[in-house]
Amino acid sequence: MAMTSASPGRGLVGAANCTDQSSFWGWQGLIAYGCHSLVLVVDANTAQTLQVLERHKASVVKVKWAKENYHHNIGSPYSLRLASADVSGKIIVWDVATGTARCEIQEHAKPIQDMQWLWNQDASRDLLLAVHPPNYIVLWNADTGTKLWKKSYAENILSFSFDPFDPSHLALLTSEGIVFISDFSPSKAPASSGKKVYISSPHSSPSHNKLAAATGAKKALDKVKILISNEKPSAESVTLNDCLQLSYLPSKRNYMLLLYPREILILDLEVNQTVGVIAIERTGVPFLQVIPCFQRDGLFCLHENGCITLRVRRSNCTITGTPNEEPDPDPVQELIYDLRSQCDAIRVTKTVRPFSMVCCPVNENSAALIVSDGRVMIWELKSSISGRNVRNSSSSASPLYSPVSFCGIPVGAFQNKLPDLSLDNMIGQGTIAGEEQLKSSFLQEVHLKFLLTGLLSGLPLPPFAIRMCPPLTTKNIKQYEPILAVGTSNGSVLVFHLTSGLLHKELSIHSCEVIIEFKVKTTNNISEIKKKYLKWGDRRNTRGNDEPAIEMIKVSHLKQYLAVVFKDKPLEIWDVRTCTLLREMSKNFPTVTALEWSPSHNLKSLRKKQLAAREAMARQTVASDTEVSSVESSMISLLQEAESKSELSQNISAREHFVFTGADGQVYHLTVEGNSVKDSARIPPDGSMGSITCIAWKGDILVLGDVDGNLNFWDLKARVSRGIPTHRSWVKKIRFAPGKGNQKLLAMYNDGAEIWDSKEVQMVSSIRSGRNVNFRILDVDWCTSDKVVLASDDGCIRVLDLSMKASCFRMDEQDLIEPAWCPYLLVPRASLALKAFLLHQPWNEKYSLEITNIETEIIARHLTDYFMALSSCSDIKKLLLDPDFTLLQRCLLVARLYGDESELHFWTIAAHYLHSLSQEKPAKPTDTAILQEQLVNPLDICYDTLCENHYFQKFQLERVNLQEVKRSTYDHTRKCADQLLLLGQTDRAVQLLLETSSENAHYYCDSLKACLVTTVTSSGPSQSTIKLVATNMIANGKLAEGVQLLCLIDKAADACRYLQTYGEWNRAAWLAKVRLNSEECADVLKRWVDHLCSPQVNQKSRAILVLLSLGCFTKVAEMLHSMRYFDRAALFVEACLKYGAFETNDDTNILFLKSYYARSLKLLGFKQGAILFASKAGEAGKDLLTELKQPKEEVIQD
């Protein structure tokens, strides 16, 4: 009896069209990309297709995963939300785990240009910003489909990019230039139209045509000084029409990249100037796409030949940043990105070319290439240590070094670590402390290379034929796999695993189009499939190349005989077991238009006779009765075992029969037994039927289809027939559903397909090209007893249910070839229980990956497969079981495993400052060893104002040095002078002020300012006067000028207070970091924290990170408690106690926190952990402790 598989398949895709260039790698570890009207979800670790989403009627152009930067608990669990947009303007928000649409959004009937989920609000995670052509940006509530606001602009909007450091800043790439928006807010549309700037392409420079060598290219591009201006460029210059991409750099604030086919321009938005150019030579391969990294200042670049390259910014050790030091006469003129690694290119043809690239956002050490032929190639970065002392390195190229720390904590040479875990664990920071780093540490040089770790193959170009393997039954349930054979037009047969989408085998058999007849044993052995095909292919090849084309092949139900129908040649009957020709019909034999084998045969009766004969022979050879009983039982068992084996291994030739129709519509019935083929009966044609094109036979039902779309149902037992005109075109194929008693019938026409109930002779469902769908059906088959699989001319294979609609599959119900690590598929309690178990196990003597003490059996069953998947990765397992792997490192590792953005940022900063501040305590503030460690291992600059003050100051000095080198106009010079004044570099600022030309309108003011800066003293009267002038200027709208004057007299703290009063919070934090001492800077940042926690701003998560950078760990624990982040708070308190960050453990808030965490552990099923934390909570956990121990005491009393 046939059964329905729990995971019958997700569908397959092949070649995509020119609009399918959208793909996205989410924090969940899954890759989503569009192919025609489908959205595919692929597991990045195993390259298996986990979900196929079908609801769009047009080609998908954009896909975006929802952000995961929020705290997860039972109320806000891990979820898989995806937004996809198509060329008709429809946006669908999916629940990917269940395959259902949460809401649909439609504003206009034009393609969506771009869209992005918002991430800056703690309160709402459902906001989606989309660009609707030609010039609208619309903010949607993606949970309800409600439009919150809409804003139009003057130019056509091509794409946009959010500033990762300031969510109120947004840049729109338009057809003429860039529009910078500085007042973006989820609550209302931007009030202004933004600041519009124009950008001239590098090609507009006459010197660009003189590119010859590498140095020549760079020199020529350096001459392109002004790229951003407020004036529209001349008509003859090339503008942004050939700009492929615009994106902010997430690794450092106020930098942006512009991608052109042959250049990548790095812009400093503080001075609106190009500070870096990555140029390709005339013979080089142009760029297609670039993805900037967050953890390191690197770029993943995709080229037109499918090659992915990684470029990392070269460290600049020549800039020392000493105050008032003369700049180097020949410093590095720009940011240089060195090529560090590149993968192999693909073979590009007219139909095969790279479409898009995605990068892992969690670890930034993997990239996936989506190719136009449906392939997904996953490349992973691997690091290797050269083993040489860096001081002995003679390489002229700037080397990369291994980082000092692993998972946020400095580790020794013999401690367990996984260098390839993420990009920041593979290579250290490049722009650290210049030569101090190299002199103070023995670091190892690192080399990077790409390895292909995953490949998902696509379908061939249509047309192709498909055939599903025999169905799932009670006999083959242990070995069954949903195997689909695809025959191509070039003679190959591709064998796919339909659930995972992986290609198992590719058999190159023929040199022409393949017609598939899939008849294999129920063991579903792939080698058996290959054996069948190769036998037949070899036999056909011996007949020569002048044979006529095969129109049809039909294998009998017992796999004994094969009927071959030729185009211009009589029918042939073959013995499949021996590959011999049994009979070739005479020349006057009727032309066969349709043929089908009968499911009935006499094999059972033959087996009974053979079994009886063998039993009789066995009894005759036995002497005693006792031996009879023992031998009889063993003989019968042996015979039963033989019976269960393949009938082809036995010398039994069962009688089978088939029917076929001639050109005149007459039905012929033939019988085949052994070597004999007999003509049994002939049935005259039905006058209502045209030329018969196909036949299906199951049980007592025989169905015929003709060229006019008529179906004729024959009940052989009742000897009645019934003709049904479908009023559709030629019936190309009819096939019964598998399963005993299942009389569903699948009929395929030129313009679609139908499902019929042959018992009731009634149509169940229908699909029609041009009406229900936009594609044309090429072939159909039954996937399971209640699902069909169809191939279409858009190069896809789809799985539909009985209603002929796309089936919704739950991702957690499928049986994959290889277990996929995706905790988002677990039920919320199971996902959080797995996370809690991996994070902390204080109730165990040592860490374990075996859950034996969880109270809830359902959760334990859910977690078994995930521990198997985790155990398969030996490196991760080794780290988790290492007793020296600290709690902070464990939290960071689990955050990466879960793809939890919020946890990753929190524990990165917490680990850094808990370790660095605990190192400072026993030593003196002037201890040079601590200073050196802070110089070698500072917090990454991607965290901006959360970094240490000295490192932040150094980075800003390097930045202004580069700005000064790149200046070319008076406006640039003035901006550089202003920055130097704020940084305290007065001598260099005076030099720039004195460079103002006498013809310039600002000559007099700049001269006076230079005099003021030079002669300013710290005396009381002068300070009072300058402070009064500065205050008046600020009150009259001259905020920047007033702040400069206050900084001149060392009143930067007052300047920060004024900046905060006028809403310039980020600027105030910047100034505090570069000019104030630790105490004054902390006061400024604490006021910023209060502002972030206000209801109007509601960015408490950001406020917690600022408090971590200040070392206010007690305040952090209290805020986490007030925000009900009990699990994170309890683990943070545990880490603080281990580092000695808390003086006492009996604080009331901490005790209550442990009580709440104990309750959450109880909810997740960890009773021992709940008892442990409840006992630590004192009075706050007394009631819970009694409640936890009560059931156990009752059992003892009973």
List the SSEs and their pairings.
Elements: E1 2-3, E2 23-25, E3 30-35, E4 38-43, E5 49-54, E6 60-65, E7 81-86, E8 90-95, E9 100-106, E10 114-117, E11 127-132, E12 136-141, E13 146-152, E14 157-162, E15 170-174, E16 177-181, E17 195-199, H1 214-222, E18 228-229, E19 245-248, E20 255-259, E21 263-268, E22 273-279, E23 287-292, E24 298-303, E25 308-313, E26 337-342, E27 354-359, E28 366-371, E29 376-389, E30 400-401, E31 405-406, E32 409-410, H2 423-426, H3 435-440, E33 444-456, E34 465-468, E35 472-473, E36 483-487, E37 492-497, E38 503-508, H4 526-541, E39 550-555, E40 561-566, E41 572-575, E42 580-584, E43 594-597, H5 603-620, H6 625-644, E44 656-661, E45 667-673, E46 676-683, E47 692-698, E48 701-706, E49 710-715, E50 720-725, E51 731-736, E52 744-749, E53 752-757, E54 762-768, E55 777-784, E56 787-792, E57 797-801, H7 828-839, H8 857-871, H9 874-881, H10 887-898, H11 901-920, H12 928-936, H13 949-966, H14 970-983, H15 986-993, H16 1003-1015, H17 1020-1035, H18 1039-1048, H19 1052-1061, H20 1065-1075, H21 1078-1092, H22 1100-1110, H23 1113-1122, ...
Antiparallel strand pairs: 1-35, 2-3, 3-4, 4-5, 6-7, 7-8, 8-9, 10-11, 11-12, 12-13, 14-15, 15-16, 16-17, 17-18, 19-20, 20-21, 21-22, 23-24, 24-25, 25-26, 27-28, 28-29, 29-33, 30-33, 31-32, 34-36, 36-37, 37-38, 39-40, 40-41, 41-42, 43-44, 44-45, 45-46, 47-48, 48-49, 49-50, 51-52, 52-53, 53-54, ...
